[in-house]
Design brief:
Elements (H helix, E strand, L loop, with lengths): L1 H30 L13 H4 L7 H10 L16 H16 L11 H9 L1 H12 L20 H20 L5 H13 L7 H18 L12 H4 L2 H19 L10 H9 L1 H23 L8 H10 L6 H36 L12 E3 L3 E4 L16 E3 L5
Antiparallel strand pairs: 1-2, 2-3
Helix pairs in contact: 1-13, 3-6, 4-7, 6-8, 7-8, 7-9, 8-9, 9-11, 9-15, 11-13, 14-15
Length: about 400
């Protein structure tokens, strides 16, 4: 009997060892497959994101924004004096962004009072962002908890300068473009960060700038063409790849010493199944990225797409399916915003040119009757709370 038990035990160990080797090989093969849009393999990720430290330009921006109560320290929050005017600025900006009228409404007193009370502080930030000094934030993808810039500070600056641009344009001040340029330059400083949340904020900042740019005085500056050169779809696909690279190299991100002994034992026993699950998730997301890279509709039904993709995941991969089910609504909203931004960018470009150029969207066309610029279909918002640029714009008569 003892001999039989010994043979059975050895057989189990051999089978377990073979399973470990199979799982390790499966995840290695999944990680070695190239992703679409020239993103390369998971293994090449560190080559694209070398470690860097926060530079002097970033530290200067932090120092200049502090008197306004705008945070760039990682754990800081918005404070007065900007904090006292934040609601009024947000409401004013939201109303103008969702207005289909090129004429800018009179700004609220709280907005003009704040801008008039802090001209030197705002001018210093603007001048710094318009200088040739590129802003670089800390980056170390090898860390268990990679540093992320204070994204609240970035979004706050974008809103401040967009509101300032509207106020100046309302006064027929051509310098309003400088405010939008400053906000755009700050957004560009985020493009070299790998994580998804940072790229979502970069996209949100670009949408803020674009949604008020069509109301600015003519002519449009040359720098505005930079916005067309940035492919936010590519940046978000790259972030999807980074998230899978992080799981491949770091696992859950929790250090072994932070786990209970029994948890470490169970995790060790389940290691091959976890790696096999990861291999399936990597393959699944790579195929998802491949399909997203080929999307040409601006009114893309991302919710239906992700539900179909969920059905394509291996049935045995219960953890992966649960994670995907949790992420469906957030990821669908993200891609709806991303593809809608394509048509929003066209709207601004056409409004400034007072023309209806061909659309890159396969699901619609532009028309312009000399007064109203209109896209041939409505594209739903990603969420009910989202402020979006209309796709029917009434332009002022030429002077």
């Amino acid at each position: 009997m003892r001999k039989i038990l010994t043979i059975a035990f050895v057989a189990i160990l051999v089978a377990y060892g073979c399973f470990c080797l199979y799982a390790a090989r499966a995840v290695q093969q999944a990680a070695s497959k190239p992703w679409p849009a020239g993103l390369g393999t998971l293994a090449s990720m560190p080559d694209h994101f070398p470690t860097q430290s926060e530079n002097e330009a970033a530290r200067t921006l932090t120092r200049l924004a502090t008197p306004l109560g705008i945070p760039f320290q990682r754990t800081a929050h918005v404070a007065p004096p900007y904090g006292d005017a934040a609601a009024a600025i947000g409401d004013y900006l939201g109303a103008e962004r969702t207005s289909g009228e090129q004429t800018i409404a009179d700004p609220p007193a709280a907005v003009t009072t704040f801008l008039a009370a802090h001209p030197s502080e705002i001018a210093a930030i603007r001048q710094h962002l318009l200088s040739d000094a590129p802003i670089a934030w800390s980056r170390d993808i090898a860390a268990d908890q990679p540093p992320i810039p204070n994204l609240l500070g970035h979004m706050t600056i974008a809103k401040l300068f967009a509101a300032s641009a509207l106020v100046r344009a309302h006064q027929n001040d051509a310098g309003a473009w400088d405010d939008l340029h400053a906000a755009w330059n700050l957004s560009r400083s985020l493009h070299e960060q790998p994580d998804l949340i940072t790229q979502l904020i970069a996209l949100a900042m670009a949408r803020v700038v674009n949604s008020v740019a069509w109301k600015m005085p003519s002519p449009a500056p040359q720098w505005l063409m930079q916005m067309d050169a940035v492919d936010h779809t590519h940046l978000l696909l790259r972030s999807m790849q980074y998230e899978k690279w992080f799981l491949w190299t770091h696992g859950s991100g929790n250090k072994p010493e932070e786990k209970a002994r029994m948890a470490r034992i169970v995790e060790g026993i389940l290691w091959p199944f976890v790696r096999l699950t990861l291999a399936d998730m990597i393959d699944h997301d790579r195929e998802t990225a491949l399909q997203l890279a080929a999307v040409t509709e601006c009114g893309f039904d991302a919710t239906a797409f992700y539900k179909r993709r969920l059905e394509g995941m291996a049935r045995w991969n219960k953890p992966g399916r649960i994670m995907s089910e949790i992420e469906v609504s957030n990821l669908a909203a993200m891609w709806k915003r991303t593809f809608r931004y394509r048509v929003e960018r066209e709207a601004t470009r056409n409004a400034l040119a007072r023309s209806a150029s061909p659309s890159r969207c396969s699901d619609g066309t532009w028309s312009f009757d000399g007064t109203t610029l209109r896209f041939s279909r409505e594209i739903p918002k990603s969420t009910m709370q989202e402020s979006v640029m209309p796709l029917a714009l009434k332009l002022n008569p030429r002077k």
